[in-house]
Structure formats: structure tokens, C-alpha cells
């Protein structure tokens, strides 16, 4: 599982999704919009929960086989700031594991 | 931790939640709606971020003890398409680990 | 990666975010609002997906180095009910791992 942290002000989501879909052909990807958060910049976004901030966090996640996930991370790491990609191992139900 | 990928057009969420709650009695479950994504079908949903698509991704997650989570996966795997359930190990704070 | 389960009715989010940001200075945090879910209380929230419940689940996540994440869990565990904090190991891209 690979998670990429973006923010709505990045405008980085569309090219990243396009790369994952068209070029890397990962099995699937989901993007979730946070309702609050802060990052290394120290800015707290949307803690009021009614703040219609234009800079809420976006979290993109996808999973694929380990070697493909690793290659995808290498390919996309220039799309985002350092330290904004995390990954962990998961079992996929259909693999029998 | 068990994650199940659904989409809004599946109409599979309610029976799945009901099964998890009434029959399997897992400790808790949360459902998050994605704002964009694509799946094995190759369809990109909502990348415009203003697209009020009726088919956005839904991500259901729950956690329980490993043997109970495993049993739950076996029970619910017929609710969803193959490869749409992933799981990974987590530590729970109250367990002292 | 540390995940904390809250609900909108807790009013615990703001003090928790403040603690994570001001005192623990974790690298970042994101908060996501679920669209449905249930907890140990057995209450099912928002399964209709149009229910404008005031008590939807909130999921706060942050990551940091293992020893800092551990310390953060110890600090924040009194903010939430037992069993509402889970954690798992992740690789961060910029670490070369």
C-alpha cells in the first residue's frame, strides 16, 4: 500500500493520477479529502471543521505487487515533496494470503 | 486492519455493514468516501474534484483480533470483487503493545 | 503510522490536533470524516449515506519516527477511549527505505 500526501493547493493530483493510471497502470487508486490537518509547513488547515479552506489535505492511496509499488514510488517521488510518500505491506484477499 | 474497496454504485455497502455489525460483531467500522479514484475497470472517477459522480470510491475499514479479522474476510469476500479486500497488522494501544 | 478514532460528537479533535501540533510537533496530521460507521457502542451512524448525522466518525492519522510515534501515543491516549488508537509500521520514501 502506498500513500501520497498532497494538498488541494498543490495542483499535483491530476498529473499524479494520470501517471498512475496511464503509465504505471496500478490496479487502482483512491483519493480522500481530509477535513483538517497540518503538515511540515506548520500550517493548521480547517480545524474549525467549517473552514472552507482551499488547502485541505488530499491523501492518495494505491496498492500493487511489491516490486510494482516500489517502481511506482520511484517514478512518482518527484511529483511530491520529500517525506510525503509512505508505504506498508498488506495482504490481498484474492492472493490466498 | 481490514480494508474493503467498494464504489457508490455497488449498493453493497449496507448489507456489508449489516453483516459486520449484526453477524460478525466487529469492534467498529468506518466508511470513507473518496473524491477521486480508479479501479481495475480502468474508469477514472471524479478527477475534476467537482464531478458529482454517483460512482465515487467507498473505503470501508475495520479492525479486530487477527483470527476474527481473518474469519470476517472469509465471510465478506463474496460481497465484493476479487482483490478488493486488503489487510495488514496493527497494534492497538489498549493491548499494551 | 498512528490512527486515532474519534467521532464528531467527541469535541476531542481540536485539543488533540493542538497537542500534536504545538506540543508533540509531529510531522503532519490529517483528519478524515467518515460517511458511515459504527463503534463499540453499537450505534450505526449514517448508513443511509444521506443522514446528516452530527456524530459521524473522524479518523485522525499522523506518522513520525517510531520512538516519537510511541511517545505521542502515550501522551494522547487519555484524549480518547481505550482501543481507539491503532498503529503500524510504514516506510517513508525520503528515508531511502
Strand content of chain A: 25-35%
Biggest sheet details of chain A: 4 strands, antiparallel
**Strands across the major sheet of chain A, in which order?**
2-5-1-6
How much is the average pLDDT of chain A?
A: 83
Report the structural category of chain A. Answer: alpha+beta
Distance between the termini of chain A: 15 Å
Q: Rg of chain A from C-alpha positions?
A: 15 Å
Count of β-strands of chain A: 7
Protein name (chains A, B, C): DUF190 domain-containing protein
InterPro entries (chains A, B, C): N-reg_PII-like_a/b, N-reg_PII/ATP_PRibTrfase_C, UPF0166
Family (chains A, B, C): Belongs to the UPF0166 family.
Features of this protein?
homotrimer; Alpha-Beta Plaits; N-reg_PII-like_a/b (chains A, B, C); 2 helices; 4-stranded antiparallel sheet; UPF0166 (chains A, B, C); alpha+beta; 23% helix; globular; 97 residues; two-stranded antiparallel sheet
Could you explain the architecture of this structure?
Chains A, B, C: It holds the Pfam family DUF190. Chains A, B, C: InterPro entries: N-reg_PII-like_a/b (IPR011322), N-reg_PII/ATP_PRibTrfase_C (IPR015867), UPF0166 (IPR003793). Chains A, B, C: Belongs to the UPF0166 family. Chains A, B, C: This is DUF190 domain-containing protein. Three copies of one chain form a homotrimer. By secondary structure, chain A is of the alpha+beta class. Chain A has one domain (2-39, 54-87): Alpha-Beta Plaits (2-Layer Sandwich), CATH 3.30.70.120. Helices cover 23% and strands 28% of the residues of chain A. Chain A has a four-stranded antiparallel sheet with strand order 2-5-1-6, covered by helices on one side. In chain A, strands 3-4 form a two-stranded antiparallel sheet. In chain A, strand 3 (36-38) and strand 4 form a beta hairpin. The first copy, chain A, is globular, with a radius of gyration of 15 Å. Chains A and B meet through helix 1, strand 2 and strand 7 of A and strand 3 and strand 6 of B. Strand 7 of chain B pairs antiparallel with strand 6 (85-87) of chain C.
